[in-house]
């Protein structure tokens, strides 16, 4: 009888822990909605990987070239928040050593200008949740660069079935980067059992952000690309810009530092500097707004809900599984909105074969509903962009882009994400670049290379088992997407 009572009490404690940490209030400043402000000097950057019939692959990649350029020109302040920041995969000559290049650029800048403020924020996955040492992080700290490894515990739990158990039994154990004895699924250095116990919490600081001073102004980069060697062949998208929105970017990153217990004085100092900026460019109607966490979801749903017959919604997405957005797209299609979905087939992940969940079951559902679906033509790399464009009848183009996939974990206040929404005239250079990027990927034929996308039939998957597997994983959080 006593054992049964104890078992019931334990079960109730676990249920209570799971419920509280799934719905508890978010830390201050998390889920940020910036003001709609003038967009100054924007530039849309794309990374496109092309494959040729003779087996050759070319990388038309611009994002990290621009990131390194911004760092090289900075004189007073650099702020970086990057999810995957490690050299996994560096043993392959085909991969660009992005982690080493970024680390070297930051250290060289600190040596050249010792008084420059450099802040680097990243996710604990890069140290396998404290079970290994990151060579990049160790080098940054040795150079005197402030490093903030995000404390994820204050965030809501995306996988409460496991996280309730972990919070009760395991979170108190800490970790030891020098005590590894198990093979490392994410790298070569041995790791600990405690790292594997933390892994199924399935949440992250998934942002990809850079801010640097540029003369008497600041520039920011919001992107889907990681400084991760194994990701260096992925297709991605990003936006650099100046103007009042920079203050919102710094403010949203300050919230992560505060949540993680870091000193925020440097953030406060540069927030005041960023507030003093130009307000507009003559004759420009371009505007921008920073969004994080579920504010991204709300903006996406608003764009879809406002779309009308004769207008167009284009989506390029690495992971797409969010039920409210799927339902909203079906409704838009019934209203006569033209919708094109360019999806990764979810068949490759850093040398490992995947089963197509969630995109192939979702692609099947939307294809059956009459929406146009095509698959990125990837060969080992990933179609990693996260982009929604809305072409309006009044001559304006709205874009939503950044780190967030359209999934429950990315959009429902579970991960940390950073996106921008912007509105520009259809003839604006950013609008033309976005349209060209999508149209080139959508086209069935390329003049020199293989097609950048494939018809729906090439990766069609009618498995009902996979569909309900995706629905279960999306609803419960028992997934990595």
Description:
This protein has helices spanning 2-23, 63-73, 98-112, 135-142, 160-169, 193-198, 245-259, 265-274, 294-306, 323-334, 359-368, 408-411, 429-442, 464-476, and strands at residues 37-38, 40-51, 57-61, 77-82, 117-122, 146-149, 208-214, 217-223, 236-242, 287-292, 312-317, 338-343, 348-349, 352-353, 372-376, 386-391, 396-402, 418-425, 453-455. It has 481 residues and is an alpha+beta fold.
The CATH class of the largest domain = Alpha Beta
How much β-strand is present in the residues? 15-25%
CATH fold call of the largest domain: Endonuclease, Chain A
Structural class: alpha+beta
Number of strands: 19
**Low-confidence region ranges:** none
Helix share of residues? Answer: 25-40%
Task: Average the pLDDT over all residues and give the rounded result.
Answer: 93
CATH superfamily grouping of the largest domain: Endonuclease Chain A
Q: Over all CA atoms, what is the radius of gyration?
A: 22 Å
- Which word captures the global form? globular
How would a textbook summarize the main sheet? 9 strands, mixed
